[in-house]
């Protein structure tokens, strides 16, 4: 997809803080079908390129979202 910083659809999910990671990923993909939500364990390294079709869902050791998921 384009690396343009103008992305389509919902771009941030603050309401998912504290949610279970798998539920959060499914919610994100339902609310914006143009993105793929990827669950990432706390402390993991991820590529830093900006993509309109990707949302990192950062989870703690219990699988709970601890950072606001957003497009990038």
UniProtKB/TrEMBL annotation:
Coiled coil: none annotated. It comes from the Eukaryota. GO terms for molecular function: serine-type endopeptidase inhibitor activity. SUPFAM superfamilies: CI-2 family of serine protease inhibitors. The keyword Secreted does not apply. One of its GO terms (biological process) is response to wounding. Belongs to the protease inhibitor I13 (potato type I serine protease inhibitor) family. This is INHIBITOR OF TRYPSIN AND HAGEMAN FACTOR-LIKE PROTEIN. It comes from Salix viminalis. The lineage of its organism: Eukaryota, Viridiplantae, Streptophyta, Embryophyta, Tracheophyta.
């Amino acid at each position: 997809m384009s690396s343009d910083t103008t992305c389509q659809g919902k771009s941030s999910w603050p309401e998912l803080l504290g949610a279970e990671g798998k539920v959060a990923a499914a919610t994100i993909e339902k609310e914006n079908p143009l993105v793929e939500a990827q669950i990432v364990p706390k402390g993991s390294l991820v590529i830093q390129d900006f993509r309109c079709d990707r949302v990192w869902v950062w989870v703690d050791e219990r699988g709970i979202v601890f950072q606001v998921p957003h497009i990038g």
